[in-house]
């Protein structure tokens, strides 16, 4: 890895004058075509930089907001074991958010700006985290379905053309598989428990199935930026391809759980070699994205409160650091 | 060498705001290096924000070594790293390419001679 993961100044005059954009673009294109990686100080088209800042930022915000639906159950986890696991998982989500913020910062946006965009509602995060988690079984459904869908999306991102993003994704994917397996286990225990427990597991799956399918984004025909992202090799597969992959993986798992997926049209299609599934309610997806989901307001209000309530800690730590460095400087002066 | 530039956040192209003095009092940026095992070098893992070195180290431990990924950590203020220019046609590293005699494969007389 490079030690200098900071962007180069917009246009550094070199010995040879201003860099030639056409030549730089050709080099960039050749590197992408050859499956090379773009690193922070390389020249890159502004649109590539902006797309990445938006995508990595949204991804980071999703991890950070994603702590809330599960954080909701930490105090009420059914056993000490489940509580420890849930805390480790929520801590991982925070970590994932920070890896991604760190990757986004290599593109020239700073952390404070991203935090501001999130709490002021100008940056998006995954629509999935605007759904409530009323029962313990939701912890299982989130791990199994939401993290399962996230893994489908994220594994190909480990080969994204932007180096710092791809490296962050490698780290994240290694940690995500624990998340999905622990979710599956929660649902398995419930679905093999009492009737009431099984009903609770089924109810959670009924509520999370469709929103999980929406996580892959709008259908290809309605996803105008996808083609460019794929040409840049940020995205490797289309939304619909990834969604199909997720459905194909998940149906057999649901059979092991003994739970039904709430879609009467879900059935194996011998000709296609894939499962067919029903129409997704894109109106709901758009409503949630526009901020009219069940928990949008709550999620942002919580994030803003955490940020505001932490202000004095940030200020105190800065003041302490400034005082310590002054003292060190004074001591140095006295000694010399 | 063409203008060496630091790896610092002061080169921020979006806001032009130097690290450590962002409007909301953001903490400076640190680069994290991890030695994954004894016998191996420290390798760059990523970056984080912290008010001072001690906090940077604690944050690095919490962020980058939650699954025993390391036995030793370094944290370095990002602005203290001096970096070479990104590679280009008139590469800074070019002198190495025209000195092929620095590689053992340049010498062919030894071909087939044992232990050489």
Automatic annotation (TrEMBL), chain A:
Single annotated GO MF: phenylacetyl-CoA 1,2-epoxidase activity
Biased composition (Polar residues): 15-24
Keywords: Oxidoreductase
UniProt xrefs under InterPro entries: Aromatic_CoA_ox/epox, Ferritin-like, Ferritin-like_SF, PaaA, PaaA_PaaC
Highest taxon, organism lineage: Bacteria
Its EC number(s): 1.14.13.149
Annotated spans, Disordered: 1-24
Protein name: 1,2-phenylacetyl-CoA epoxidase subunit A
From TrEMBL, chain B:
Record protein name field: 1,2-phenylacetyl-CoA epoxidase subunit B
NCBIfam families per UniProt: PA_CoA_Oxy2
Classification via InterPro entries: PaaB (IPR009359), PaaB_sf (IPR038693)
UniProt keyword Transcription, yes or no: no
EC number: 1.14.13.149
Keyword entries, A-Z: Oxidoreductase
Top-level EC class as recorded in UniProt: oxidoreductase
Region (Disordered): 1-25
């Amino acid at each position: 890895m490079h030690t200098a993961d900071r962007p180069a100044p917009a246009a550094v005059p070199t010995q040879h004058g201003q860099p030639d954009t056409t030549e730089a673009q050709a080099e960039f294109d050749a590197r992408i075509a050859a499956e090379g990686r773009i690193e922070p100080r390389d020249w890159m088209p502004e649109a590539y930089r902006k797309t990445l800042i938006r995508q990595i930022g949204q991804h980071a915000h999703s991890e950070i907001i994603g702590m809330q639906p599960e954080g909701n159950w930490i105090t009420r986890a059914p056993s000490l074991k489940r509580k420890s696991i849930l805390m480790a998982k929520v801590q991982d989500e925070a970590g994932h958010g920070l890896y991604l913020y760190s990757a986004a910062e290599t593109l020239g946006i700073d952390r404070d700006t991203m935090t501001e965009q999130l709490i002021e509602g100008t940056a998006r995060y995954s629509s999935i985290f605007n759904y409530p988690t009323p029962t313990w079984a939701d912890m299982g459904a989130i791990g199994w379905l939401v993290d399962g869908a996230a893994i489908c999306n994220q594994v190909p991102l480990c080969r994204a053309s932007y180096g710092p993003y791809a490296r962050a994704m490698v780290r994240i994917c290694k940690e995500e598989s624990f998340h999905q397996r622990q979710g599956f286990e929660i649902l398995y225990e419930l679905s093999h428990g009492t009737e009431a427990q099984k009903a609770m597991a089924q109810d959670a799956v009924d509520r999370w199935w469709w929103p999980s399918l929406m996580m892959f984004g709008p259908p290809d025909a309605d996803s105008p930026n996808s083609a460019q992202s794929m040409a840049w090799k940020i995205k490797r597969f289309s939304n619909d391809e990834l969604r199909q992959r997720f459905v194909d993986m998940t149906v057999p798992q649901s059979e092991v759980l003994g739970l039904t997926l709430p879609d009467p049209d879900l059935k194996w299609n011998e000709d296609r070699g894939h499962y067919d599934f029903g129409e997704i309610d894109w109106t709901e997806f758009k409503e949630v994205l526009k901020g009219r989901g069940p928990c949008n307001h709550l999620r942002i209000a919580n994030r803003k409160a955490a940020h505001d309530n932490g202000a004095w800690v940030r200020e105190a730590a800065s003041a302490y650091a400034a005082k310590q460095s002054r003292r060190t400087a004074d001591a140095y002066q006295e000694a010399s | 060498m063409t203008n060496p530039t630091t790896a610092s956040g002061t080169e921020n192209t979006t806001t032009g705001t130097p690290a450590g003095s962002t409007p909301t009092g953001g903490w400076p940026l640190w680069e994290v290096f991890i030695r994954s095992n004894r016998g191996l070098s420290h390798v760059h893992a990523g970056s984080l924000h912290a008010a001072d070195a001690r906090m940077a180290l604690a944050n690095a431990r919490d962020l980058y070594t939650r699954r025993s990924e390391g036995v030793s950590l370094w944290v370095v203020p990002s602005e203290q790293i001096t970096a070479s220019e990104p590679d280009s046609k008139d590469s800074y590293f070019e002198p190495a390419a025209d000195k092929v005699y620095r590689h053992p494969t340049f010498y062919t007389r030894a071909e087939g001679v044992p232990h050489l």
